[in-house]
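Action item from last meeting closed. Structure (85 res):
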């Protein structure tokens, strides 16, 4: 799955889970501008771990600043798991 596809899935998750409209989120949307706090990052980490079957900590998620950065993190972790398998 490409970074773009993962970003689209992250955007869908944010829309469903937090009620954002389609026009409010893009790959470059800044999490700080959305007012995300540590609880949101914990919830995202749990949901994304489940969706992608990868280990993902709240700290790793919180260190990303945009949807694209989060998608890149997911893609890198999934690739690392595939190589290790």
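Sequence:
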């Amino acid at each position: 799955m490409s970074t773009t596809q993962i970003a689209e899935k992250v955007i869908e998750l944010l829309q469903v889970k937090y009620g954002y409209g389609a026009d409010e989120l893009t790959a470059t949307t800044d999490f700080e501008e959305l007012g995300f706090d540590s609880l949101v990052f914990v919830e995202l980490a749990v949901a994304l771990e489940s969706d992608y079957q990868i280990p993902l900590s709240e700290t790793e998620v919180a260190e990303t600043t945009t949807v694209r950065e989060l998608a890149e993190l997911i893609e890198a972790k999934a690739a690392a798991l595939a190589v290790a398998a």
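Note appended to the action item: The chain has a mean pLDDT of 93.
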